[in-house]
Design brief:
Helix content: 25-40%
Low-confidence stretches: 1-5, 293-320
Distance between the termini: 38 Å
Largest sheet: 7 strands, mixed
Number of helices: 10
CATH topology of the largest domain: Rossmann fold
Bound molecules: S-adenosylmethionine
Strand order of the largest sheet: 7-6-5-8-9-11-10
CATH superfamily of the largest domain: Vaccinia Virus protein VP39
Structural class: alpha/beta
């Protein structure tokens, strides 16, 4: 029997396996110890607390080999989420596959922005374009049970993952379809159209970095400036919004001004940008003109920028 690259030994303890795996992962991962713990817990079918409570327990050779193979793939850059098939987002345990983007913590700002414009006690219709795993759609559906949430993606495989996530997490008010951009939204006017679309420029070297090169290129890149899908959404969405409805878009940290300009030129008001925890412009939203007498006003255009993150958005326990 060959020795595992992670354990270097057919039979070792949990503590020793973790130490060796961490050392192997240090060159490629920013979180080598955490990665090692997650992968060993996955291999053994144990929780991480149980793993950490029993460093002296020995691992049988079969487990050691499987763990070694996972560590090797992680050393080659494969994201932990693809190795385990899971990712936490908004405190939800989501299934993830190589057909879906791995949901990012900064996208929780997108969820917060939607919750900030959808009152908890009112029926609403929310469309999530480019839903991927369904992360945003499922989080909004669970936080706003009176809303109907439609997630769409042009990737059939992604839509299947999103459906599975919604069903497992009991988001019965969410549905999913395969569709390009806003093409499936004509049947009604929407309270909110939200999207975390692909927004990286083709040729951006970040597309070739370790974890990212394993993710679907269509989920990441969008034309020479990364603005192609954002432009399409800004062009199509306003006609699909109900009076007073909101378009809420995630974008790259350098794209805030461009996206504000797109929303303003599309006729939306109250245009504002929310920064992420790192201080980068991350989410821009704009509002369709409300009906006369609504009294809330559509806002003044792109002057209203750099809003503070929306307070009281009813966020669940922040993800680790
Ligand atoms: C950045 S990922 C976001 C996934 C998910 N919403 C999240 O935040 O984790 C972008 C998603 O948009 C989808 N997509 C790309 N272009 C699209 C288009 N024109 N119409 C619909 N979906 C699109 C991709 O397949 C991918 O799932």
């Amino acid at each position: 029997m060959s020795a595992s690259p992670a354990t270097g030994n057919p039979k070792v303890t949990i503590g020793r396996a973790l130490t060796r795996a961490r050392a192997a992962l240090e060159a490629t991962s920013e979180t080598p110890r955490l990665d090692a713990e997650i992968l060993l817990a996955q291999t053994l079918g144990w929780s991480r607390p149980r793993l950490l409570a029993h460093p002296e327990a020995s691992i049988d050779p079969g487990c050691a080999r499987r763990f070694g193979a996972l560590v090797k793939r992680r050393c080659d850059g494969e994201p932990v989420a693809y190795l385990t098939g899971r990712r936490e987002f908004w405190s939800l345990d989501l299934a993830v596959t190589p057909d879906t983007l791995v949901p990012r913590p900064e996208t929780e700002h997108l969820v917060e922005a939607v919750l900030g414009v959808v009152p908890a006690d009112t029926p609403a219709t929310v469309a999530d374009i480019g839903t991927g795993t369904g992360a945003v759609a499922v989080a909004v559906a669970l936080e706003r049970p009176r809303a109907f949430v439609l997630g769409s993606d042009r990737s059939r495989a992604a839509v299947e993952v999103a459906r599975e996530n919604a069903a497992r997490l009991d988001a019965g008010n969410a549905a999913f379809i395969v569709a390009d951009a806003c093409s499936a939204l004509a049947s009604r006017r929407w309270s909110v159209i939200v999207s975390n679309p692909p927004y990286v420029a083709e040729g951006d070297p970040r597309l070739e970095t370790a974890d990212v090169r394993f993710e679907p290129r269509d989920a990441l890149a969008a034309g020479p400036l990364g603005l192609d899908v954002l432009e399409t959404l800004a062009r199509q969405a306003p006609a699909r919004l109900a009076p007073g409805g909101w378009l809420v878009l995630e974008h790259g940290s350098e794209q805030g001004a461009a996206v504000r300009s797109l929303l303003f030129r599309a006729g939306l008001g109250a245009v504002a940008t929310i920064r992420d925890l790192a201080g980068n412009e991350r989410v821009t939203l704009g509002r369709c003109a409300p009906t006369a007498g609504d009294g809330r006003g559509a806002g003044t255009g792109p002057g209203a920028i750099d809003a503070e993150p929306i307070a009281g958005a009813g966020r669940r326990t922040p993800a680790a």
